[in-house]
Every structure is written in structure tokens, then in C-alpha cells.
Write a structure and sequence with these properties.
The protein is α/β, with parallel strands linked by helices. The protein folds into three domains: about 5-25 and about 240-370, FAD/NAD(P)-binding domain (3-Layer(bba) Sandwich); about 30-130, Orthogonal Bundle (Fumarate Reductase Iron-sulfur Protein, Chain B, domain 2), CATH 1.10.1060; about 145-240 and about 375-444, FAD/NAD(P)-binding domain, CATH 3.50.50. About 35% of the residues lie in helices and about 15% in strands. It has 16 helices and 17 strands. It has helices at about 15-20, 30-40, 50-55, 60-70, 70-80, 85-90, 100, 115-130, 150-160, 180, 195-200, 220-225, 255-265, 285-295, 315-325, 420-444, and strands at about 145, 165-170, 205-210, 230-235, 240, 255, 275-280, 300-305, 330, 335-340, 345-355, 355-360, 365, 370, 385, 390, 405. The strands form five sheets. A five-stranded parallel β-sheet has the order 3-2-1-4-17, sandwiched between helices. β15 and β16 form a beta hairpin. α2 crosses α8 (about 115-130). It is globular. This is Oxidoreductase. GO terms for molecular function: iron-sulfur cluster binding; oxidoreductase activity. It comes from Caballeronia ptereochthonis.
Length: about 450
């Protein structure tokens, strides 16, 4: 929907200075003194539980020890060798349920080591220095097509390029980055960080990107299989689930992911429409991001409504607390049954809890109930799907020869997180590289 379709708009309520403050970095960079102090709290555990909790298996005690010794380059090498998008993951990872949640210091009388902040300290230093940390292997002549420039695709491209192959990324959007560029709250990744990180990835060499092209419209999977030595599918989940309720087409009702994208790419935050009374339907991180950004833009009241209990929410406890700290009201066990309107515009949402029906007034409703695979360009007879995801093995190889898949569009262990998508890209790249070696052995 267009911005003009939203009803009671609260744009221009805040001054440019206020908006700049609201959307400043939510977790500012540690200085050298703070980083040294944070690093000194690490016990450098053998068989550290924090490492086991990290999907990309970063040597966390190792990089923290190096920070404590003043060796930021070594720390960055440890991080980025395991996670080429380590800077973004330091900003958006739910560390409270991953590495920091597993820290041995994480108990009632203590607090975990600030692993995420320390990871960002080292990777930001590396990005600022711009020094090469890794050397690409000699050219192999192999070419890999990567469909999608999100975290999984970028990770795979970087790892196959590092191995000496050439990666060609094909993406439907104008900018690469996927979720990192279009789907994360603006206050989490300030100063165009997603694109700066991508430029660092490109610096390894051997990576080409073509934007504005999509599978099924500009090329087919079969064409890619013939033209390239391997194909990695990582186009994410482009579809958005609908509520399928009366009133869903009213002005003022829109998808939360579209709203987040508007905020991310607005030249002037004061021009982004937001209701005075906003209701966000959903219980995940997208819902939290939409809620908090609504408040930061000037909404008077923001309600996050979820149909189940807090324990069923995919948003972590830290995200929920952050939302509440920013003035968001969380209503649970609220099943939406109708979107109410007047003269074509939304005025409220009717919910049911047990046998009770109640209405929350709203002039803007954001839907954040999940995303789905749009299987355009995928032949279901050749590529197996399960539950709306592309089926892969533990190496992210699909049922179709020469084709791998990863990220949110594919089946995998763990949650749908940026860090998991990065790991999927790594696993696929290693499997693709190994398949080339196996082919060479058979040929010999």
C-alpha cells in the first residue's frame, strides 16, 4: 500500500533532531577501555558453551583473549574466518539466547560476558582499517550462480570466491543485502552498515552481482544449471502471510515488513507516515521492530497483539523488554477476528480471548504473522519441497543435482536467524567445493 493510504498520520510530530536521536545506534560501539574491561571478564573456557551455541562456531574465547591483548586484527580474523558477516551478526543476533545465553557467567548473581559488543568492537575496527585479512586462492575456472543476495547468498559467495571460484549473485532487488538491507530496524544498523559490510565482502575478489533480475522471469533454474558449475538458491521468503479477515483491505492496514522497509530507505524520516494509534499483530522480531519504530516515529500508542502466550513468542525476552521499555503495550492470548473500519479506513481491531470479544482502537494496523516461500521458477517435480521450504541435506544440497539451497527458503536446523543463514551459506560453499574435488578425482 502507499503511504498516502494510511489514515491518522503522525508524521512531522517530531523534529529532525528528535528523529535523529530516536534512530541513533541502539548499541553504541565500545571504546578501547570498555572493551578491555569486558574482555577481562571472560574465563576462556575449554570446550566453551558459547562456541557451541553459535551457529557459525566462532572461537569466542580466542577472539576475546586477543581483544584483551590489544590484538584487534587477530580477533577480527578469528571472527570473520568463521562468520564473514560477523559485523552484522554482532548487531542483530539474539545473543541473549545464543552465545551470551550460554555463557558460564550468566546466572542470577552475575551477568554474561558482552560477547556481541566485543565481536562488534573487533569487526568494526577491521572494517574501518580496510586492511585485507584473507587471501583468495588461485582461480579455478569454476562458476557458481547464487540466487539471492541475502545473508546466506553473500556468505556462500564469499566462501566460494575465497576458494578460487567465481561467484555470480543474482538478486531481484535494487540493492544487495536481503533481510540485512530491507528487513531490520533502522536503529540496529545505522550509517548504511549493510552496504559497507558487503563492500568488504566484495574486496576478496571473484564476486559479481547482478541486481533487478529474478528467477522465473529473467532466467530459469535449468538455464543456470547448464551455464554454471553449481547453483545455490537463497532467495528467502518473499511472501507475506495474510490474516484472511474481514477488513484486511482497509486503508491503514499494511505488512510490517513493508513498513520496516519504508523506514530503512526513507530520505526523510519525518515524511514516513505512522498512525497515532498503531496495532501490530504478531509475536516475532519483525513485530517488535515494527512496534518500536512506530513509537520512535511519534505514534502515541502502540500495541503488540499476539494470539498465544509470551512463552510461544519467537521474539526473545530481550526484544520484548526492549519493546516495553520503548512504550509498547504487549497483549497476549488475543486472537484477531475482524479489522473494523469507517469510510474505508481502519479504526480498530476486534479480538477474542476465550469467549470475550474486545476492540483495540487503531488508525494503522501492521501485520507481522510470518513470511512464506514464493516458489516462482521452481519445478516442484524436480526440486522437493516440505512445509513450504526447499528440502536439503545436512550439507544444504537439494534433491536436484548441482543445486544447493540455504537461508529461510530451505529446511535447516535451528531458528530463522541471520547467523543461521550465514552458516547455511558456509556449509553449501564447502559442499560445492568438495563436489568439484570429487569430480576432478573421478575424471582423473
Amino acid at each position: 500500500m502507499t503511504m498516502k493510504a494510511i489514515g491518522d498520520i503522525a508524521s512531522h510530530r517530531l523534529t529532525q533532531e528528535q528523529l535523529a536521536c530516536e534512530f541513533s545506534d541502539v548499541a553504541p560501539l565500545l571504546d578501547a577501555t570498555a572493551a578491555a574491561a569486558a574482555a577481562s571478564r571472560c574465563h576462556y573456557c575449554f570446550d566453551a558453551p558459547c562456541v557451541q551455541a553459535c551457529p557459525t562456531q566462532i572461537d569466542i574465547p580466542g577472539f576475546i583473549r586477543k581483544i584483551g591483548n590489544g590484538n584487534l586484527k587477530g580477533a577480527a580474523v578469528d571472527i570473520l574466518s568463521a562468520n564473514p558477516l560477523g559485523g552484522m551478526c554482532a548487531r542483530v543476533c539474539p545473543t541473549e539466547i545464543l552465545c551470551e545465553g550460554s555463557c558460564v557467567r550468566n546466572h542470577r548473581d552475575d551477568e554474561p560476558v558482552k560477547i556481541g559488543a566485543l565481536q562488534r568492537h573487533a569487526t568494526d575496527w577491521a572494517m574501518a582499517k580496510g586492511e585485507p585479512l584473507f587471501k583468495r586462492a588461485p582461480e579455478t575456472g569454476r562458476r557458481i550462480a547464487i540466487v539471492g543476495a541475502g545473508p546466506a547468498g553473500l556468505s556462500c559467495a564469499y566462501r566460494v570466491a575465497l576458494a578460487g571460484h567465481r561467484a555470480v549473485i543474482l538478486d531481484a532487488r535494487e540493492k544487495p543485502g536481503g533481510l540485512n538491507e530491507y528487513g531490520i530496524a533502522a536503529y540496529k544498523t545505522v550509517e548504511d552498515y549493510a552496504q559497507r559490510e558487503i563492500e568488504w565482502l566484495y574486496s576478496i575478489g571473484g564476486i559479481e552481482i547482478k541486481t533487478g533480475v529474478s528467477l522465473g522471469r529473467d532466467f530459469t533454474l535449468e538455464e543456470l544449471r547448464k551455464q554454471y558449475d553449481a547453483v545455490f538458491i537463497a532467495f528467502g521468503l518473499a511472501g507475506v502471510r495474510e490474516l484472511a479477515l474481514e477488513g484486511e483491505s482497509l486503508d491503514g492496514v499494511m505488512n510490517a515488513v513493508d513498513f520496516i522497509e519504508q523506514v530503512r530507505h526513507a530520505d526523510d524520516l519525518a515524511s514516513v507516515p505512522v498512525g497515532r494509534r498503531v496495532v501490530v499483530i504478531g509475536g516475532g522480531n519483525t513485530a517488535v521492530d515494527a512496534c518500536v519504530q512506530s513509537r520512535k516515529l511519534g505514534a502515541t500508542s502502540v500495541t503488540m497483539a499476539y494470539r498465544r502466550g509470551v512463552g510461544n513468542m519467537s521474539a526473545t525476552w530481550a526484544e520484548r523488554e526492549f519493546a516495553q521499555t520503548n512504550g509498547v503495550t504487549i497483549v497476549t492470548h488475543a486472537k484477531p477476528v475482524q479489522l473494523i473500519g469507517d469510510d474505508g479506513r481502519v479504526t480498530g481491531v476486534a479480538f477474542e480471548r476465550d469467549a470475550e470479544r474486545f476492540v483495540i482502537e487503531a488508525d494503522m494496523v501492521l501485520k507481522a504473522i510470518g513470511q512464506t516461500l514464493v516458489p516462482v521458477g521452481i519445478d516442484k517435480e524436480l526440486l522437493t519441497l516440505d512445509g513450504g521450504r526447499i528440502v536439503t541435506d545436512e550439507n544444504r544440497q537439494t534433491t536436484l543435482p548441482k543445486v544447493w539451497a540455504g537461508g529461510d527458503c530451505a529446511t535447516h536446523e535451528g531458528l530463522d536467524l541471520t547467523v543461521q543463514a550465514v552458516q547455511d551459506g558456509k556449509l553449501a560453499a564447502a559442499s560445492i567445493d568438495a563436489s568439484f574435488e570429487l569430480t576432478a578425482i573421478k575424471a582423473a
